[in-house]
Write a structure and sequence with these properties.
The protein has a 7-stranded mixed beta sheet with strand order 4-10-9-8-7-5-6, with helices on both faces. A 4-stranded antiparallel beta sheet has the order 11-12-15-14. It is α/β, with parallel strands linked by helices and 434 residues long. 43% of the residues lie in helices and 12% in strands. It binds pyridoxal-5'-phosphate (PLP). The site of pyridoxal-5'-phosphate has 15 residues, from helix 5.
Length: 434
């Protein structure tokens, strides 16, 4: 057993044991939740460092507390690496997570009550893209758009039609469950035509953009928002990329007299947050450095190769996939024609050691509480070193689960044992001392 947390083990065995149990569970099952991957030990060390103790409200060189010589250097390094990695003019690394980053987007470019175009949660959008129970749907008016229910893909003519009719002030592009390529250039043409801002939310796909296997939003979007903990493999957190100047208002905004970069910074602090989480920012700088390596680009490419192989394995075995397949890290199995729900399938898969989530599919007739789909992602397994052979084996396991829904209690433990054996042949980054 690990001596990785010797002090915690002594002082708080309850929490220590639960952390160990969760880590062991994740290392012996297939982590296929599309938003998850495995952060490196270096990222976790930075995140677990003394920096958690430091208060430094403000930005490098302009703080409201003293004693910032080193934290300024850390935040500047994170910013510089972010600029280099994404080719962005401006980077803010302070958002506490993806949702606060998106909140800052609204506060920096819109007024309460403005219309925005976004995808409803049930069609694969994020809560913060204008969903009714979220601040974004309460304070702003969501004009919904969604992938075509038949093809499962965005129909750009239809999206343009909605934009011209409704003239939103901002368009969100980016999703939590869209398995296909997003063509930012096409979205930019629509946004420019109606003088709206275009914001890409790349929380799910940032590593694919870094690896060059998905189009780059930075040249086409006014702001790009991201989480740092999903396939980027950083700490829990978020960041914002933007241009310095405002495309719609020139150098200075008529009311605030500030450029876009300054308005974003002010929206984060003092607009929404207090002190930056310097332990998370240091860990994000580490993750950015890791993401600049050739190994990381290989990881990004392999994620997509793995998802494609998994998709092929399922199609060959007679399953239907939303939009017919994938160009990203995720795929949606379409169970609309089956007599079990997405929720039933996700439960059964978890029993067998395949951890994913139920999710609506385009044209779903079942409620969001049960759905007709299961969403699967390949980022975490790719981080473990799994490749095409393992993906085909996983398709076979999924098939076995789905064909044995009636007697899953007997079949699941057998599959679970096989999965544990397969996982044992790979190293889980950051879990090697289990
Ligand atoms: C995960 C996600 C977010 C929000 O991230 P949190 O860190 O969970 O707040 C925002 N947008 C998209 C598209 C996401 O997938």
């Amino acid at each position: 057993m690990s001596e990785r947390y010797p002090h915690l083990k002594q002082s708080d065995p309850d929490i220590y044991n639960l952390i160990q149990k969760q880590a062991k569970y994740e290392a012996t099952t297939l982590k296929m939740i599309a938003s998850e991957s495995f952060a490196s030990i270096s990222v976790m060390e930075a995140c677990g460092s003394q920096l958690t103790n430091k208060y430094c409200e403000g930005y490098p060189g302009a703080r409201y507390y003293e004693g910032n010589e080193f934290v300024d250097q850390i935040e500047n390094l994170a910013i510089e690496r972010g600029k280099q990695l994404f080719g962005a003019e401006h980077v803010n690394v302070q958002p506490y997570s993806g949702s606060p980053a998106n909140q800052a987007v609204y506060r920096s470019i819109l007024n309460v009550g403005d219309k925005i175009m976004g995808i409803p949660v049930t069609d694969g959008g994020h809560l913060t893209h204008g969903w009714k129970v979220n601040f974004s749907g309460k304070d702003y008016v969501q004009i919904p758009y969604a992938p075509d229910p038949v093809t499962g893909k965005f129909d750009m003519d239809q999206i343009r039609g909605i934009a011209l009719r409704e003239r939103p002030k901002m368009i969100w592009t980016g999703t939590t469950a869209y398995p296909h390529t997003i063509h930012y250039k096409d979205f930019a043409e629509i946004a420019h035509e109606i003088d709206a801002y275009l914001v890409a939310d790349i929380a799910h796909i940032n590593a694919l953009i870094i690896a060059g296997v998905h189009p780059d939003p930075v040249p086409h979007c006014d702001i790009v928002s991201s989480t740092s903990h999903k396939m980027l493999r950083g700490p829990r957190g978020g960041f914002l990329l933007s241009k310095e100047e405002d495309r719609l208002h020139g150098k200075y905004h008529p009311e605030s007299k500030l450029n876009l970069a300054k308005r974003i910074d002010r929206a984060i602090f003092p607009g929404l947050q207090g002190g930056p989480h310097m332990h998370a920012i240091a860990a994000l700088a580490v993750a950015f450095k890791e993401a600049m390596t050739p190994e990381f680009r290989m990881y990004g490419k392999q994620i997509v190769d793995n998802a494609r192989t998994l998709a092929q394995g399922l199609l060959t075995r007679g399953y239907e996939l939303a939009g017919g397949g994938t160009d990203t890290h995720l795929l949606l199995i379409d169970f609309r024609k089956k007599d079990f729900t997405g929720k039933d399938a996700a439960r059964a898969l978890a029993q067998a050691g395949i951890i994913a989530n139920f999710n609506q599919v385009p044209g779903d007739h079942r409620s969001p509480f049960v759905t007709s789909g299961v969403r699967l992602g390949t980022s975490a397994l790719t981080s473990m070193g799994m490749k095409e052979t393992e993906m085909d084996q996983i398709a076979a396991w999924i098939d076995r689960v789905c064909r044995n829904m009636e007697n899953i209690d007997t079949v699941a433990p057998k599959i679970r044992a096989e999965i544990e054996e397969q996982c044992g042949r790979f190293t889980v980054p950051g879990y090697s001392d289990l």
